[in-house]
Structure formats: structure tokens, C-alpha cells
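Closing statement on the S-adenosylmethionine sub-project.
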Amino acid sequence: MSPRVQPDPTASTHWDPTLYLKFSDQRLRPALDLLDRVRVESPETIYDLGCGSGNATRMIAQRWPSASVYGVDSSREMLEQAAAKPGKIRWIDADIRAWSPSETADLLYSNATLHWVERHEELFPRLLGYLKPGGCLAVQMPLSWSAPSHRLMRETLANGGAGGKAIGSEQLRQSVARVWVASAEFYYDLLARSVKSVDIWQTEYLQQLEGRDPVLEWVKSTGLRPILDDFDDEERTAYLAEYGRRLRSAYPMRPDGRTLYPFRRLFIIATVY
Ligand SMILES: C[S@@+](CC[C@H](N)C(=O)[O-])C[C@H]1O[C@@H](n2cnc3c(N)ncnc32)[C@H](O)[C@@H]1O
């Protein structure tokens, strides 16, 4: 087994738009809940950071039809899917870690992406600096680190092999153990001192998923990707069998055949002076 994963899991993650869109209803709901709370008057320039296949970007463009809307993403596959639908949104292939806008923005929107980018204590102030006076930074990130699905993901790496052995490399385990999103208090303290207002809240969605291994299918399209990308075929098969078994026990199917998957998310809207 070769230690191929970079310390930053975003560097090697391969995105699969088809798998990601399998749960598009559940994924779009927090995107819309975030958008619903954004209060910017007649914005001219909007960027959707980590736009993926562009579902939320298109909602943004519909809400403000006269604005220039840009979708930014580092996955060519996601951008191809986004650009396949006609419209006047401009799609930009860029890594948020190095990206800066060509003009200051009225709204920087980012749904389910910034947890893939490290060093939030630098990232968030940098993004605020790209806003026009009165502009908004609107962010939604999953608070899944302590959820059973993600705890079991790490535990199965540590002891899910034959005889309770570890699967995969030590580097992979360290990379996956990173706490991707800090506490709400951390973001409040980081932002409140330099902005006009911070609207911050958490929501736990009790998602109803269908199929035999729905929680496994869900994480396969997001949080599990760095792990799956790093494994060889034998490791991947062993890991998925054991992790799937643990997930079925943690999230039992209800009598009607659906599985309830509680999922907590953090929402932040910071408006600058
Ligand atoms: C979970 S998807 C969210 C997509 C979209 N915002 C949505 O709500 O459906 C995360 C997206 O972030 C992108 N992404 C992750 N890290 C990135 C980075 N450093 N720079 C640009 N895009 C990134 C991925 O390519 C992927 O399309």
C-alpha cells in the first residue's frame, strides 16, 4: 500500500458528478436555505465558490437575473456538467486556495465546499477582503466530523482489517482525522470583530434515504472520496465491506424501507461594512 494521499485531502480528491447528484434533493435543500437568508440589494457580481455541477449557481442566477454570476470549481468533471446546461453563468476552473476575483463581489456564496479547504483562520478574512462595501459572504459547511458515519469511517481505517488490523496508510489515517470544520463560536469570533453583522445557525436535517446501503452511498460521493482514491482494489473491497456493515448497524433501515440519516450543517452569512 503506497502513501499517496497528500496532507490536504482536497489535493487528490476526484469528484464524480453522477454519484454526487444521486442525492441532489437532499443536497440542494441546505443550499436553498442558505440562499434564502441572503439579503443583498441588486447585486452586480456574484461568485459561487465550489459550484460543483452548478445547481445552486443556477438558483442564484434566477434570483438575480441582472447580476454577473460566476461558478468557480477545481474539478473539470463538475465544471463540464455545469456548463452542459445553457445559460449566461460563467464557469471558472480555479482552486479556491489560490483564487482571487477579477472584480470585487457583492456576494460570495459557498455551499458544502469550504470544509475541503484548510486554514479557515486565513481563508475567511481573505474572502471578506474580496467583497464590496455592504457585500455578503454566505457559507454552508457540514458538521459531520463527530457523526457516527464519519467516526466509523475513521475507526474502520484504524481497526477494520482482518483480525482488527488497520487498513491503508498512516498518512491516510492522519489526513482523514483532520477536523474539517471548527465550532460555530470559532467562526463567530473570527468574523464578528471585522464585519457589520453575522447571521450564524446550525440545522440538523433528518434525511430519509432509500436503498440497501444509503449512508455508504452518500459518503462515497463526498467524505469517503479521499479514502477510496487512495486505496488499491483489495483494500477498497475490504474497507467497503466492513464499513458498510458498521453503517447498517449504526443506521438501521426503518420498517418502510427508508433509512434516517441525521446530518448537521453550519450556516454563516457575514455582511461587511
Ligand atoms: C460537495 S461539492 C458541492 C458542490 C456545490 N456547491 C453544491 O452545493 O452542490 C464540493 C465541490 O467543491 C469543489 N472543491 C473542493 N475543493 C476545492 C478547491 N480547493 N477549489 C475549488 N473547488 C473545490 C469540488 O470540486 C466539488 O465540486
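DSSP finds eleven helices and seven strands in the chain. With this model delivered, the sub-project is considered complete and its resources will be redirected to Aim 3.
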